[in-house]
Amino acid sequence: EVQLQASGGGLVQPGGSLRLSCAASGFTYDDYVIGWFRQAPGKEREGISCISTTDGRTSYAESVKGRSTISRDNAKNAVYLQMNNLKSEDTAVYYCAASAFGFGLDWDEYDYYGQGTQVTVSS
User: Fold this and answer.
1) Residue 45 near residue 35, CB atoms below 8 Å
2) Which of 12, 53, 73, 111 is deepest in the core (most CB within 10 A)?
3) Are 45 and 54 within 8 A, CB to CB?
């Protein structure tokens, strides 16, 4: 059974940082692309970053570029998203997802996803 579990969300003040984690199991982890997506109330889902577990290629949306770093630990089947200088507009539910064939930030290219973790940026 494929499982993806996002964690690490919480309440943080503007300008603060969070490290989100995605734990993956049930598939050949090192042949996939793991992506991070977020959805705020009333807004469309947005792909914000992805990483190839095979070669470490990364991609970032403009909305988080320069403030976020995605990384992987293949030994732990985990992907992390370090987010710095958080803004109120970063408030959303964050999801991780796995894609067997695509590399990018298009939700439709992803085959598996898990429950999200809430990130709230507020003073």
Assistant:
1) no
2) 53
3) no
